[in-house]
Design brief:
The protein is mainly alpha-helical and 81 residues long. Helix content is 72%, strand content 0%. The chain is built from four helices and no strands. Helix 2 runs antiparallel to helix 3.
Length: 81
């Protein structure tokens, strides 16, 4: 197999992984509240806004621990909506 063929196969593999990830990503908190619990869009938005205010703020101090903390906070915020 040539290097070009290997590159093409690698790109196809990455595309498949990305597609699988999109098809299998877990629901957001917004989707759970709206779809599973049946709350209205307005109430769901209010709940999400409240949870976002409740989440801790990112820590501006530069260290490995705060970088990991900030990563965790961002991940939580990303899964809200």
């Amino acid at each position: 197999m040539t290097e070009k063929e290997q590159d093409e196969n690698f790109k196809k593999s990455l595309d498949l992984i990305e597609k699988w990830g999109e098809e299998n990503k877990p629901p957001t908190l917004w989707e759970i509240i709206r779809n599973d619990l049946g709350y209205s869009v307005d109430l769901t938005n209010e709940i999400i806004d409240t949870v976002e205010k409740w989440l801790p703020k990112e820590d501006p101090r530069p260290s490995y621990a705060t970088m990991q903390w900030d990563k965790c906070v961002r991940r939580m915020k990303d899964t809200l909506e």
